[in-house]
Amino acid sequence: MSSVSPIESAQNYDKETELKAFDDTKSGVKGLVDSGITKVPRIFIQPPNYSIKESNHTQLNFPLIDLENIQENPNKLNDVINKVRVASETWGFFQVINHGIPHRVLQEMLDGVHKFYEQDAEERKKWYTRDNKRRVIYNSNFDLFTAPAANWRDTFYCQMAPDFPEPEELPPVCRDIMLEFTKQVLRLGSTLFRILSEALGLEANRLGEMKCAEGLALLCHYYPLCPQPELTLGTSQHADSAFLTVLLNDQINGLQVLYENQWVDVPHVPGALVVNIGDLLQLVSNDRFFSAEHRVVTNSVNSRVSVACFFRSDLMKSTELYGPIEEHLSNDNPPKYRATTVKEYVTYFNTKGLDGNSALLHFRI
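User: That's the sequence. What structure does it adopt?
Assistant: Structure tokens below.
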């Protein structure tokens, strides 16, 4: 695959052919790096209107919330609910510590993702597909053929709950830890949705009764080191399509949140998990909670991995309709969105791709 300078990349070329050639390798961005490339292929170069601006390095207090002893201490729980409310209304992001998932499980999950991507290329290729009906979907860029530019990222995806996969359906190098990690994250999710319900002024089990917490998909991302990180992104600016995302990062920074119109690095806190409000939770809260735009930048020093846990229903099976929660609606606060299913929302989101525009706009009344 050819590589060109930014100036040359603006000239006409057969983008579709280059995209198909890249996809046909079934090796992803990892395969490009393993081949020894020294320049970013033009399909990955961001167009001029998607310029990669430096992040703001001033010391902003990124929300960090301690969940220790909240079940035993009502005062601590109320404090956490208030902090989650403020973070969800302003940042749309926060980090949690003392969340109950053992460090061993977190580290083994990160190690499992590394093992998947570092196994022999021919073994990886067995899982490569664009068939959305497969249980495990491994490829590079779900929106490869529609996005303005490809992202410097490979991903494998699996819907883990409410119907757990059989062990043989998962990649052998990480199947055991995927199952254990999922059970732990579901427990944490149940706690977070109770807190979020109360932060919205609802009964603690309200979002749970709406089945916001029962479905879970794992997106295991691999961001190889990049020879020209100023030209491309690991993940373009976007908001998540789920109700809630719980993100496990390794120690290498790259995630940035758009806060008050500036990009802010999410700081690395050992043992912490990043939590962010998704589009569907913004929709049902009628804009009370905020699904923030975020992105991932690349670097030329280290590869990095992350595991995004999307709380959303099984797209093939869920028929629930989700609209703004009735308890919040009044003459002064009418519904801002029409009702939709998770399948309709995510299908629209995926078809649109990461084009820099919010999918929520399509569902506004």
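The radius of gyration is 20 Å.
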